[in-house]
Amino acid sequence: MSEEIEKKIYRGRIKVPYKHTAGAYVERFITEIGKNNKIMGVKCPKCGKVYVPPKMICFTCFEKMEEWVEVGKQGTVKGFTVVTHSTPVMPLEPPYAYGIITLDGADTDFVHLINESDPKKLKIGMRVEAVFKEKPRKRILDIEYFKAI
Amino acid sequence: MSRKKGQEKIFEIKWKTDLPYRYSIGKLAVKFFEELKKNKKIYGSKCPKCGKVNFPPRAVCADCFVEMTLSDMVELPPKGTLEGFTVVNYPFVDPQTGGMRPFPYGYALLKLDGADTYTMHFVNETDYTKLKVGQRVEAVFKEEREGNMGDIPYFKVIKEEE
Amino acid sequence: MDHFEGINFSEMWCGIESAPGYLKPVVKVATGGTTGSSLAICGYYNVASGIYKNILVIGWEKLNEGGATTGIITAFDPVWERPSLAGALGPLALMAGMYSAKYGITPEQAAKVTVKNRSNAANNPFAHLQMPNITIDYVMSSQMISYPLRLHDVCPQSEGACAIIYANEEETKKITDNPAWVKSVATSHYYTFGTDDKMYDLPTATMASKKVYKKAGIKDPIRDLDVAEIYEPTSWSELAWTEALGFAEPGQGGKLLDEGITQMSGELPVNPSGGVLSTNPIGATALVRVAEAAIQVMGRGEKRQIPDVETALAMGFGGSLWTELLILGKEKLR
Fold first, then answer.
1. Which of A107, B118, C81, C203 could be disulfide-bonded to A49 (CB atoms 3.0-4.6 Å)?
2. Is C50 in CB contact (< 8 Å) with chain A?
3. Do B62 and C85 touch (CB under 8 A)?
4. Is the Cβ–Cβ distance between C266 and C260 less than 8 Å?
5. Total domains, chain C
6. Record: contact B14-A19, CB cut-off 8 A
7. Do C278 and C129 meet the contact criterion of CB atoms below 8 Å apart?
8. Cβ–Cβ < 8 Å for C333, C44
9. How far apart are CA A98 and CA B141, in angstroms?
10. pLDDT, tens digit, for every residue of B39-84?
11. What is the pLDDT of residue C13?
């Protein structure tokens, strides 16, 4: 960048600590992943749809969902991309893949990381399995990533 | 938020946002910071239509909507008057650093001599009983200047012989 | 608001998932402190224009999750303002100091505002700080946090939400036989840059009140309004801004309170809910003013009800010191 342009730029940062009270459903979901390596969903009493991650209210029936069901650690990739561009706020060093995954037994899709960075080795319909973090930190990355199987 | 005894612990996910950004300051501010760094001089901008002098320098007159250019920049003396003041005496996270902003600190709305608008800045007085509206102040310049607002770390309270 | 809780796209969280607004048009309105009044005015426009029949308007805030001061600093100019700005309280302290220096307003007069509002809050089951036995001495001996503001001269950080249903005339009949009608609304802005003026007398409140009174046919606010819910982030601001709204001459806000006019039993009670000094979930705060004004008009205020309210004023303040006002009434504007 030229010196002339550089002079016109103020480089700053916004650094703010936050805490998020995620609610009882997220608490149970994340705690089961960390403690028991189980992935839990909730089932709508009316339409039977299983939501993973769990939601309190069924989007289509507006029913409160209270039945917890364990879903599979394995699932099917519905879509994917490989991130090759780097920005300062990425969860991993590129390249890495993101997938839309439907876990076995779930009716909703779930977005997570896939540890495969070669787009040739990824395809829609491929099977993946959750790899859990050894030391859970109470967040969604307690499923460290999904691996191809 | 304080939690009463016996109340269950709320599940919280904690994180710290750290977002870098680049902010375009505009050509008038470029000139302001150049003069500040090289010559210890303070420049404002003067509306070519109504003559209102803006400090901080603004690119458009708020009253006339006339654009001001580099040739409309005027030098202002480093002295001014406190129009309002307070002593900030409470803890908070400064989003510029992610850490606590040091306190107490004197904080003022001041007007440079010759300017028609106001500016907010630090004042080197933390005893509010020693400050008053109308108090004279003078900009303090850093010796090693970098061309940012840190070059004027604060305004100091001065006494003037009339 | 997004910069307080650190969640962007909050309309998705609040509007779709929690509300729930699935398959419905959801619009986010965020204008800083005025968010609630902007929501209220947008709700009114959406229904009054004939675009929608029924609208649910929600304002919310969870200040426990972030920090108001930290978030507010990020809203200001990174070069000129962020380095020294101390959130909203720093500038509010400057304004209070300039106002008291100009008119000789005393800390006792300011403390009386807190005493009035927090004891009113004891009648409001939704208020955050309910202090039925609060005294002037208690306020004046609290810690000086930003001269001339002491701890109890300023609003708390609250968590909370507020919701209002807007409906057109036809739909209203199906919902209630005792609605509050929106009679007039106004938004006023004033300056272009943050430090163009001193602003301690809130010129935007004067500008907005002239507009809103004219539209609603109010000639003398003390006589023609029955109750006002105003947005007072500090005790000093209620004094200054009741003047700006035309309730008293400049510098006479303290006298207005001393004479008891703004008390629960006065001619024009201000903030029977306890106001912002008692409860401040920022994104909901100004909507709470509107909801409380509506509650007074509908006669549903229970212990905080002012008798025979026909006309009520609600105020939002925020952002770059701008003002939004709504006048609600028992009768439709003809």
1. A107
2. no
3. no
4. yes
5. 1
6. yes
7. yes
8. no
9. 51
10. 999 999 999 999 999 999 999 998 899 999 999 999 999 999 999 9
11. 72
How many angstroms separate the CA of residue C224 from the nearest CA in chain B? 35
Q: Which domain holds residue C46?
A: 2-329
Q: C334 lies in a domain?
A: no
Report the pLDDT value the prediction gives residue A1, as an integer from 0 to 100.
54
Q: Is C16 helix (H, G, I), strand (E, B) or coil?
A: helix
Kindly state the helix (H) or strand (E) to which residue C10 belongs, with its residue range: helix C10-11
3-state DSSP of C22-43? CCCCCCCCCCHHHHHHHHHHHH
Residue from B7, B9, B12, B13 whose CB has the most chain A CBs within 10 Å, to mutate: B13
Q: Quick one: average pLDDT of A9-13?
A: 91
pLDDT digits (tens, 9 = 90+) for C60-100: 999 988 889 999 999 899 999 999 999 999 999 999 999 99
The complex's ipTM? 0.91
Report pLDDT digits (tens) over C19-59.
Answer: 667 778 888 999 999 999 999 999 999 999 999 999 999 99
Alpha carbon B153 to its chain centroid, in Å, reads: 9
**Domain span at A51:** 22-148
CB-CB: which of C73, C90, C147 is closest to B128?
C147
Residue C64 lies in a domain: yes
Minimal Cβ distance to C83: which of B54, B109, B149: B149
In a domain, C43, yes or no: yes
Residues of A in contact with B148 (CB under 8 A): 10
DSSP B72: G
Q: Is the pLDDT of residue B120 over 90?
A: yes
In a domain, A58, yes or no: yes
Question: The domain that contains C147 carries what CATH number?
Answer: 3.40.47.10
**Radius of gyration for the alpha carbons in chain A, expressed in angstroms and rounded:** 19
Give the pLDDT confidence score for residue C20 in this predicted structure: 63
Tokens 């982030």 found at: C233
Closest CA to C292 of C274, C307, C317, C308: C274
Q: How far is CA C105 from CA A8, A145, C205, in A?
A: 45, 63, 20
Partners of B89 on chain C (C-beta within 8 Å) are 143-147
Interface test with A, best of C17, C63, C81 (most A CBs within 10 A): C17
**Rounded to a whole number, what is the distance in Å from the CA of C137 to chain A's nearest CA?**
36
For B97-115, what is each residue's pLDDT tens digit? 999 999 999 999 999 999 9
- CA–CA dist C305, C230 (Å, integer): 16
Candidates B16, B92, B122, B140: best to mutate against C (most CBs of C within 10 A) is B92
CB contact under 8 A, A21 and C64: yes
Would C213 be classed as within a structural domain? Answer: yes
Spatial separation of the C-alpha atoms in residues C279 and C286, rounded to whole Å: 11
pTM for the model stands at: 0.92
Provide the pLDDT for residue B2.
46
Q: How confident is the model at residue C2 (pLDDT cuts 50, 70, 90)?
A: confident
| A57 close to C (CB below 8 A) | yes
Q: What is the mean pLDDT of residues A7-31?
A: 90
Query: Nearest-CA residue of chain A relative to B12?
Result: A21
Q: What's CA A58's distance to the chain center, in Å? A: 20
Residue ranges of domains in chain B: 27-157
Retrieve residue B42's tokens: 């303070």
Q: What's the CA gap between C41 and C164, in Å, rounded? A: 11
